[in-house]
Amino acid sequence: MRITVLQSFLSFVLLGAVQAHEARTQDLLDRRVTISVKQEEIRTVFTRLEKQTGINFLYSSNLVNPSQKVTFKAQKEPLSVALNRLLMPLHLSYEVSDKHIIVSRIPVPLINRAQEEGAIPQSSFEVTPPPADQVVRGIVRDENGQGLPGVSILVKGSQKGTTTNENGNFELTVDDGSAVLVFSFVGYFTQEKTVGSQTSLEISMQVDNKSLEELVVVGYGAQKKVNLTGAVSTIGSEVLESRPITNLGQGLQGTVSNLNISPGTGSPGQGATFNIRGNTSINGGSPLILVNGIPMDINLLSPNDIESVTVLKDAASAAIYGARAAYGVILVTTKSGKKKDRPSVSVSSILTSNEPTSRIEFIDTRDRIGYMNEAYMRINGRPYYDDIMVNAMMAHYNDPSQPSAIIHPSNLNEWTGVANTNWEDILMNKRYPMQQHTASVSGGSGKFDYYSSLSYIYQGGLTNRDLFKEKFNRYNLMTNLNYEVLSWLKVGTKISVNNSNKRYPPNDDQFRNSYPETGTIYQTNVYSTQPLYDPNGKWTHEGSIGNPAQFIKDGGERTRKVNDVWLTGSATLTPIRNTTFNVDYSFNTKSTAEMSYLALIPFYNVNGDVSGYYGGSNPNRVIRTNYDDNYYVFNAYGDYSNTFGKNYVKLMVGFNQENASYAWTKAERRNLIINDIPYMSLASGERFASDGLNEFAIRGAFTRFNYSYDDKYLLEFNGRYDGTSRFPKKSRFGFFPSVSLGWRVSKEGFMSSTSSWLSDLKFRASYGTLGNQLLVDAAGNPIFYPYIATLSAQEVPYLVNGERPMSVYSPELVSPTLTWETVSQMNFGVDLSLFTNKLTASFDVYRRDTRDMLTKSQTLPAVLAVTEPRANAADMRTSGFDLNIEWRDKIGEVRYEATVILSDYSAKITKFSNPSGLITDYYVGQNLGSIWGLTTGGLFQTDEEALALDQSNINGRKRQAGDLWMVDLDGDGKITRGAQTLSNPGDMSVIGNNTPRYSYGFRTNWKWKGFDLDLFFQGVAKRDLNMSTLYYLTQYSNEWVGISKAAMDYWSPENPDAFFPRPIISGAGDITAVQSRFLQNAAYLRLKQLTFGYTIPADVSRKIGMDRIKVFFTGANLWTATKMIKISDPELPGPSSYPLYKSLSLGANINF
Question: How far apart are CA 541 and CA 538, in angstroms?
């Protein structure tokens, strides 16, 4: 039915368009115009004619000089007559295309012919036929009149060309006077010049300062940058060029104010997560990301295919997307072809070597003996290692040829390690490779344009390649095709195919969670005394603790294969004057196949026989999980625009429908018959299987209205009426409007005296509401049917008559009034451009209120035996600011630009049901990210000091010198946590906040004679991190972990100013508790990118058949300034996370 309706709609529109087409062109030319100008620029004439007729004039500044002064008068003349009188003496012609008039230059031969026939007066020009094979000399000057070296000069439509020398001079031989020279240089507008009879040319290049007239992609369309009234930021593809990045998030970090990006970890293939303007809901959430208007995971895209990225920050700009835009919107536009005389082929390759930004250096055996013996002595009154162990350890330490394992009298069946093993070197690569290759072809002619690319990324991992080949690779194929079927009908097709494969070590999820995907070998229990092999050449183990190298080498593997295909068909129709209709339909199918294979890991005794198996591997097993996702998107929208005098109006209305289904199946079988063949058909153990299906749909009607008066006073209204399947029918739909205003003060008459230095000054204000229909559970997983009480069914974990029967469990309660979370946002901003757009700045302040957040409702009596339902019962307020400043200029022959961004946000709970005031839950007035903990005054220096303060409620052991000293905030003479309520927190207080504050970035680019240098810094000025304790503090509570060298800075009478307390093995509740001493300052400044490149002169490149060759060196994350402890990275939650990487890259970009 949907297809039938769509076909009928298109047939109706096309039929009407055909009937109207022939009359439309003549109607445009018959409109009468009145105009009188004297020595005014021709662009002013075009603007006045546009306002009278509603027709847009299009022309290239390379062919038509918009600054040419003309004197012209017409009194109620038909437009065709007026244009002929205006353009012909200027050697210009025009053509009508839909609601546009395209102005172009008349070729020289046609001018001669027109002159002979009397169409143009002879006196208006004179043309001398140029000689064949003529030599053209000239100079190219910059905006200051100085010679500009390195300008590329190409004979249009050929490979013939040259470049200007150090003084800006050039010489070039052309076939004849009809040759058109194309002058291009980075940072300047490209110009074209017909040679004609001239043998000497002087060209003045104009700086491209990102004109205010450039179009910015917004929801369902585009607008001129100067007319924007919402908080919108745009990034071009130049930010992503020549960088060793595997996903778009890495390239965007630090480039847009208040676009907060977390790189996740350095795990191969790891994607980034996004946040716009901070916390929106206590339920989390991420912005809506659209690629060419379609929801898509941008971590699967090749950064080389990106043309531009637009970030919609406030409700005014995002309201057009309604229920999905509560967290902001990111619009990604991919590259398309451009009509050229010949295809353009681009090839890019980058080879990279990575190494971790942070590493844990573990202590050796000699230091471990001293540390463990001291720690054990405090608790048990005896050393951890006896004399037999110490003597054997030191013997091997001093002479590695001595045994690395012995048979200890306490355990005659197993080897006891006495080695001095550097597990970091055994388990991890020092460096690991990455490579990226992209090839693309683009072009078009006449009515057809195309862009197609193929990309490949390979990324190695941190795991020692001799033990396990950890890797990620991805192929991306993208094709964009556009065809003009008729002058009023254009169709397009976009195809995106993404294929990725990842292989990584097995995960023991039943015992010690040794290798989570985003973790590393740091998750395992590694310490120096355990050797790699025992004297029999078998893998060693320590009691139930296995050998991490054995886990990696023989423990199995995990794989993930993703196939993601997007198909989009679109049509653009312009059947009626000033009106455009757009229709597109997209289909996505994504299949993911995951395999987890855990092999049986044997332990060996002193005789070399198998004595048992590592608990987490027994039984061995294979798990296969398949995900099949399908997504359908239909958009239909149209717009009408017109100019009435000084009034400009534009109205857009549309419809959107999206359907999605997510199916999964999971199967597991244990007891593999052959340990190293992970197939279920070759297993004898019990089978486990499960599956599921989730679906959702969203439907919306939307509109946008724009009005401007004299390009000074701007108004925009957006509204969307959305419905979602996630809510009950009675509360399924919601209307989300927004309004924004703009005032271009610089256009006012009283500002005329500033026009020499003030390019533009605009004030903006907006207010709007958005809805949030994406609800998540406590684990962050989406909830598809939150209003339906569901029964859970599964097999019981025991046998009845030899079988495991099915059991159905009581449903949880649901709220009958469940509805949207509503986000309202107010924004005030100012845009400033100075000195012919050399300096541009944008500043916004905002306040966002999130109401009716989904949270637990009032506590129910325990006799119900179910948890309370979730309800819309909480509110939150977020406020912050965005600042962006850009400067572009030139010093002599050196061109440079600099960009600074700064942003901040904070969020506070304004409504929440917490009658007891528990500080372990949300409460009214709470700043999100607050860290409650104990305040540490320092370390006790004497036993008397330690005994004077009662800290038994925190830790019951006897206090001594070198232990932590907690501050008694409530003055009761003892350290307690009270009732952990706001009214009785004991000695607890807010000791920090983990919200990143004052995020900033700085980028500068310098160019000189083909050389370019790009520097990019990014950082956070304030953040507190309650770091995970593994390899930070767990040595105080677990004897089976490695000890970092940083931990050796512990208290002793000789080291009273140490950072860490004196060693202890157990009873470390005060040390591992959240407290101020071990809170880390996670502020940092990082050199994210340094690129140095050289573009080979064009005349050299063309001798080998290339248009452009650029070679470059790039470094990423090369330097970091931070006060954090060196065992972790300030962008990670702790030392057990897979470390980020710094990289060194060599690359080349070639165009031909």
Answer: 10
Residue 803 · residue 797 · CB < 8 Å? no
Alpha-carbon span 214 to 221, nearest angstrom: 13
Q: Where do we find the tokens 């903990």?
A: 933
* pLDDT on residue 704: 94
Dihedral class, residue 1010 (left if φ above 0, else alpha if ψ from -120 to 50, else beta): left
Rounded CA-CA distance 205/181 in Å is 13
Q: Determine whether 842 is exposed, middle or buried from the number of CB atoms within 10 Å of its CB (0-12, 13-18, 19+).
A: buried
Question: What is the spatial distance between Cα 317 and Cα 328, in angstroms, rounded to a whole number?
Answer: 9
**Residue 583 scores a pLDDT above 50:** yes
pTM of the model: 0.80
Q: What distance in Å separates the CA atoms of residue 148 and residue 128, rounded to the nearest whole number?
A: 30
Distances 947 to 380, 602, 962, 967 between C-alpha atoms, Å: 20, 49, 12, 14
Residue 213's contacts (CB-CB under 8 Å, 6 or more residues apart) are 224, 225, 226
Q: Which fold has domain 216-335?
A: Ferric Hydroxamate Uptake Protein; Chain A, domain 1 (2.170.130)
Q: Which CATH number fits domain 31-124: 3.55.50.30, 3.40.50.300, 3.40.50.2000, 3.40.190.10?
A: 3.55.50.30
CATH of region 134-204: 2.60.40.1120
Render pLDDT for 512-561 as a digit per residue (tens, 0 to 9).
445 667 676 666 677 899 999 999 999 999 888 888 899 889 999 999 99
- In this structure, the number of other CB atoms found within 10 A of the CB of residue 1055 comes to 14
Rounded Cα distance, 166 and 1046, in Å? 56
Residue in the block written with tokens 């659209």: 290
Evaluate if residue 244 carries a pLDDT over 50.
Answer: yes
Q: Which residue has the tokens 């209305």?
A: 653
Domain residue ranges of the chain, discontinuous segments joined by +: 31-124, 134-204, 216-335, 555-720
CB 523 within 8 A of CB 616: no
Could you give the 3-state DSSP secondary structure of residue 872?
strand
Identity at 182, one-letter amino acid code: V
How far apart CA 935 and CA 968 sit, in angstroms, is 8
CA torsion through residues 1076, 1077, 1080, 1085, sign? positive
- In this structure, of 208-222, 446-460, 609-623, 742-756, the range with the lowest mean pLDDT score is 208-222
Burial class of residue 541 (count of CB atoms within 10 Å of its CB; 0-12, 13-18, 19+): buried
